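Retro notes - structure team

What went well: the batch runner handled both jobs without manual restarts.
What didn't: labels got mixed up in the shared folder, which is why I'm recording both outputs here explicitly, each with its sequence directly above its tokens.

Job 1
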Amino acid sequence: MHDEPIDPFNGDPADPTAGLDDPGDDATPDPLTDVERQDVLEDLADLEIYQALLAPIGVRGLVIECEDCREPHYFDWDLLRGNLRHLLNSGRPRVHEPAYDPDPDHYVTWDYARGYADGVHDTLTEGTEDDPGTATSAD
């Protein structure tokens, strides 16, 4: 099983994106800084939690507002995970295109997913913390 989608043009000399992956020998990308690397690792960990909580209720992935084209991009869980791993390994993001005719009702933002996860966490931990302000004494 592959962690990311298989490239249908892999090894094809007529690959229309061949020049995109090889910017040239003189354009070696800078590796991620330690802070950037940690951010990507945290995003991957968060993504696992979000998928575990949201996929069972019909959420297919996340929507991200693209800074370059100002369009929403819809990523299913596996594609987003593959993109983050690619960034972690190569130090640069993948070239991307908007999904074909996605149903926006099946995608949520990072902020929504984070809030949902926080709400589930708060609900599960409610009443398990000792709160001295709620204790009553019998006098």
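Job 2
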Amino acid sequence: MSQLVIDHLDQQTGRPASSRANDTTTAPGLRRHVTRMATSAVDRLQAFLVAYSLQALRICLGLVFLGFGVIKFVPGLSPAEAIASATIDRLTFGLVSGHTAVLLTAVTETVIGLTLVTGKFLRVGIVVLGGALIGIMSPLALFTAELFPHGPTLLGQYVLKDIVLAASALVVAAYALGARLHTGSDD
């Protein structure tokens, strides 16, 4: 298919106006302009994400832990109270059980949440989080039959989401220990 382009002479150069590099009145010129604008927008988005995404992840993860921890202080309020108690009971070989196990879980999750949200004592919070992840993930191995009898129960789904929390915790821990995102090509 052919295309008819009518060139107007540029008053200053005497050349056809469509030959200017920044001309957006032709398809190739418009394409270059749109490509530059899109590339610039993507670069600005990338810089924004590098600057703020890990802090946002840290704070959001902290809010989740803080929320789950605080509700465990009120007996009967947390849907995970029974599984938390049973898990701690099993992991401590019966030394810590019942309300004490739930209270220990509440304190641990609240401390983790506060360190992540505030950024204060972050390395301590990361160490506590590392230990807590053992307890957080344990129900998947300890109570598999109860959580997934013929598919995931509601409690099974509640515990299963902890995989995402664990992965997020790994990213936050890497950042807290010095890893950094950098801008660059994905090639």
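One thing worth noting from job 2: Residues 1-7 have pLDDT under 50 and may be disordered.
We'll revisit the folder naming next retro.
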